Amino acid sequence: MEQRHAVVIGGGIGGLSAAVGLHRTGWQVTVYERAAEFAGIGAGISIWPNAQRALAELGVEAPLAPQRDGALRDPRGRELARWAMDPYVRRYGLPLTAIHRADLIDALRAALPEASLHTGVDVLSASPDGLVRHATGTIRADLVVAADGIHSPVRTALYPQARVAYSRGTAFRGVAELPGASLSTTWGRGTEVGVLPLHDGRVYWWVAEARPEGVRHDDVRAYLLDRYGDWHAPVPTLISATPEILHHDLYQLATRLPTYTSGRLALLGDAAHAMPPYLGQGGCMALEDAVVLAAALAATDDVTEGLRRYDAQRRPRSQRVWHASVRAGSAGPLLRNPVGRALRTAVLHLAPASAMAHAESWINSWTPPRLPRPARPRTP
Questions:
Q1: Which helix (H) or strand (E) holds 205?
Q2: H helices within 25-159, ranges in order?
Q3: Is residue 15's pLDDT more than 60?
Q4: How many CB atoms lie within 10 A of CB 59?
Q5: Using CA atoms in the order 311, 106, 171, 347, what is the torsion angle rounded to 10 degrees?
């Protein structure tokens, strides 16, 4: 049978992982990335047990950093709750891990043929019949995967009514050298500060603040040190030691799409279900999408039937995770009401360390479908 061909629009985590899954199940894959190079834009990312299983099924080896026990703290450093990794491992077989986005992108790229990867390609449109128009021509494919991000032009063409909304929060992020740092999250008034050690002595950190959209600072580091310079260690040290601090307002897809597919076209990752980051599941959902897409298409020769199965499996779960992420932001870092914060603190103080491992267990316990491996051609 003639090899099927897929065009993947977008070379981020979602696009590359989809390409890997399709490639491993026998598809010819072409990846179009608009930027001049494949890069891990951003800083770090948490890889929860559900996403670790997806990576393993894709056959991708990446330098994940297993997290040790950590704590949820207040700005003075007092513990509100403990995060114990043993319960995570007992419950899910895996701990929480972290990785730099650039390292994950490199690992996904390494699992693909170099000839499949094309940078500097601006895709102008993609049709449900498999026709893709880009700046220098057209290509027709058996499958088109739109993994072109939260502001996806492909999604906009399919669903002009779909709306992207400000999530009421902004984020500062960076990576600094600080060997020996440990996992922590700190909640203040409308603020969350997170610390995630990476595998090589570097630390990924972030600050999320509830604030109006569009507020900017001439000197981001000075602003952060002025506001967080008296918070517990290592928060001030990380801010001071970071070479480049990123600042982005946080957005989410505010419309639940009625389907992720149309004809031979599938939406994947943020293009389908962009969510706020308060559960750390945005990239994890894209990895799940990729495995399910590849498995659904491997189970049938009919692309539209495979995409129907993909939509039936991914849309309910990813939209439920989207809703949980919105709820987590409102109850956690975005919570400004002092009575609500006091009640939250009291509940956390009473919770055992193992309770953190049980929270949102329906997310972390997800198991991917098995990907069939294409038969090797016989040697004459």
A1: strand 202-210
A2: 49-58, 85-92, 101-110, 153-158
A3: yes
A4: 13
A5: 70
Looking at the predicted structure, is the pLDDT value of residue 379 above 70? no
Strands (E), 184-257: 184-188, 191-197, 202-210, 246-253
Coil, helix or strand for 12? coil
- List, for residues 145-188, the tens digit of each pLDDT value: 999 999 999 999 999 999 999 999 999 999 999 999 999 999 88
* 65 has pLDDT over 60: yes
- Is the pTM higher than 0.90? The answer reads yes
Please state, in angstroms and rounded to a whole number, the distance separating the CA atoms of residues 257 and 147. 15
Cross-strand pairs, 184: 71, 195
Query: What is the side-by-side order of every strand in the sheet holding 184-188?
Result: 79-83, 70-73, 184-188, 191-197, 202-210, 164-177, 246-253
**pLDDT tens for residues 328-354?**
877 655 555 554 444 445 444 444 455
Give Cα separations from 282 to 256, 324, 378 (angstroms). Answer: 15, 12, 41
Nearest CA-CA partner of 123 in 113, 111, 132:
132
- Rounded to an integer, what distance in angstroms lies between the CA atom of residue 186 and that of residue 367? 30
Angle at 225 between CA 245 and CA 195, to 5 degrees: 60
What tokens appear for 81 in the block? 């709750």
CB 318 within 8 A of CB 256: no
Q: Both tokens of residue 98?
A: 């972290």
Rounded to whole angstroms, the Cα distance separating 325 from 177 reads 29
Task: Sort residue 42 into left (φ over 0), alpha (ψ -120 to 50) or beta.
Answer: left
Distance CA 85, CA 66 (A): 9
pLDDT tens digits, residue range 109-130?
A: 999 999 999 999 999 999 999 9
Angle, helix 13-24 to helix 101-110, in steps of 10 degrees: 20
Tell me the two tokens of residue 79: 């513990």
- What tokens does 246 get? 């990123």
Nearest C-alpha neighbor of 52 from the set 69, 67, 41 = 67
* Amino acid at site 155: R
- The widest CA-to-CA distance across the chain, in whole angstroms, is 75
As a whole number of Å, the end-to-end CA separation of the chain is 18
Predicted local distance difference test score (pLDDT) of residue 358: 59
Give the rounded percent of residues in the chain with a pLDDT score beyond 70: 90
